Amino acid sequence: MDHPLTTLVIPCYNEQHRFRAESFAEGLRAEPGLRLLFVNDGSSDDTLPVLERFCAHHTDRAEVLNLQPNGGKGEAVRRGLLQVLAQGNATYVGFWDADLATPLDALPRYLAVLNGDPAMEMVFGARVRLLGRHVARNPMRHYAGRIFATAVSVSLGVPVYDTQCGAKLFRATPRLQVVLATQFCSRWIFDVELLARFLVAWQREQLTYQGRIYELPLHTWVDVAGSKVQPGDFVKSFTDLVKIRREFRRGRSDV
Hints:
The chain is an alpha/beta fold. It has 8 helices and 9 strands. The chain is globular and about 50 Å long.
């Protein structure tokens, strides 16, 4: 299939003033196999009507899932992915930050990785500052992220560089549906919990993560003003990492 169906879940919370309708429309024009599922996560502003107007102009390519009340980004992503998987027609599913810090024109590179290797199950964007790339991050958030990524690598035993980039793509498989079946215990670092669940699932099938996870260095990533992440969330993330590590170890010991 020249254009495998790919559906991206876009979690949205109070994005009324940051929503870039034309950028999303351009993404749909550029990628014929792309569909968008916007998840309104209990927004208190006019995000929902903004999303509904966009989808009304792209009825066959975009839709809205309205969740009330606000349940957090992780739950919005989980519910959105489950809805897409239940429809049963997507080859690849993923989630993408609503602010398009990772532009949608990066998607073909994600698809190339999954199309090129049927054993590959997920592609994570990695915000690596290299010459010839445009990766603009707040310095404090960058260094905090490096500390956190190191803690995740030690906790899960996987040399992951960037767990928190909000652009990830997965092969639509029964395993993904099982991984998403229950709510995340973490509101802040659900990406890490998702990875931990996959590691346990692979171990149960006597598989390893090698050749199943690919970190893709991004050509462009720009820290967009108005992020919902606050300085105190860094501390909460480490608290949640302790919970995830505990559940991860329990899951592996049950195998």
